[in-house]
Each structure stands twice: as C-alpha cells, then as structure tokens.
Putative 3-methyladenine DNA glycosylase (Chitinophaga agrisoli), 205 residues
Amino acid sequence: MEKLGYDFYTRTNVLTIARELLGKVLVTQFNGVLTSGRIVETEAYAGVVDRASHAYGGRRTARTEIMYAKGGTAYVYFIYGIHNMFNVVTNQAETPHAILVRAIEPLSGIDAMLTRTGRAKADYTLGKGPGNVAKALGITTRHTGLDLTGNEIFIATDDYVLKKKDILLSPRIGVDYAGEDALLPYRFTVRDNPYVSGKKLTGKK
C-alpha cells in the first residue's frame, strides 16, 4: 500500500476527493494494534456555503476550528452521546471542507474490531455507518487534529480498482435541517457493497 500525501487532500474540489476516497484503505495503528478497512461510503461537506456543514456561514467553535486546518487532518466529533464520527479535512488552510467516512469493508485486525465493538462475530454492521467505522477502528475525539500522513491514522491506496459504473451518488443522510442543500448529491457509495449504510441505491454516476 502507498500512503496518501498532502497533494491528495489539499485539492480544492471536495467532491472529487470524496469520490476518490472510495476504494482507499483507512488504517489505524494504536498501541501496536493495526486495523484497516476499505472505504465504501463517503459524504462531502463544502464548508461555509454548505448549510449541512458545521462550518456553514464561517462558523468557528472550539469543536470545529480544526476544520480550518490544512487538508490531511482528522476531524472527529461526538454525536448523540454515543458515536464518534471520523472526517477528513480537505483543501487549503482556512477553507473548511471535510469528508465524513460513513462505511468501510473490514480488511485487517477484525478480532480487534470485534473486541472494540463488543460483537461476537463479524457481520455487515461491523463497518456500516460512521459510528461503527470509528468504533471498529478505535477512533475517538482524542484523535481530532491528527496528521493523516502520519502513522496512527492514515489512508492508503493499493491495487484495488473501482470502476466508474460502480460509484453511486445520492443525497447525504440525516441533514434535513440543511434545506435545499440536503438534496445535493454529495454522498458517494460503492454499488451493491453490503457495508454501505442507509437505503439501497440504484442510481449511478
């Protein structure tokens, strides 16, 4: 595998990056435990102009300030008092674009994933949905701000090739508050992958 570098993350088009993250491998290495999964679902958030983004209108809080960092930084937030949500900050510093990783297909360290999630056996829920992604990979809010070109959390490319016809677009999940922006086709999924969250999709790019 080859680790993705800043040149991947700092590009200006968050939709392009969200699409190209599909098929890449998200890796964590904590306390000598390596776990990884292939990314099969992402959602793009386009910063200050996107009503669904935490940074809409230029909002800056203690939690969201990390979104204004240079692309290639981890943004992890806690929601519903239950779930950690892992996001990839993209673009140049001061442009708060981010991509939520919504689903992975587990590849390595599955025993560790089962321990972290309290499951007895691996099924499709192990990597389905962003809360399960973070739990399986051991990611929490304490990892916010980590450099994604480092060794604790990184994304890599291997010899996996995803065909264009197998990339589906749809509106994002759970952003009804965003008005018209809730309808934007900013969610990218791998066709027929059982780890993808939400309803089954039939459209295509």
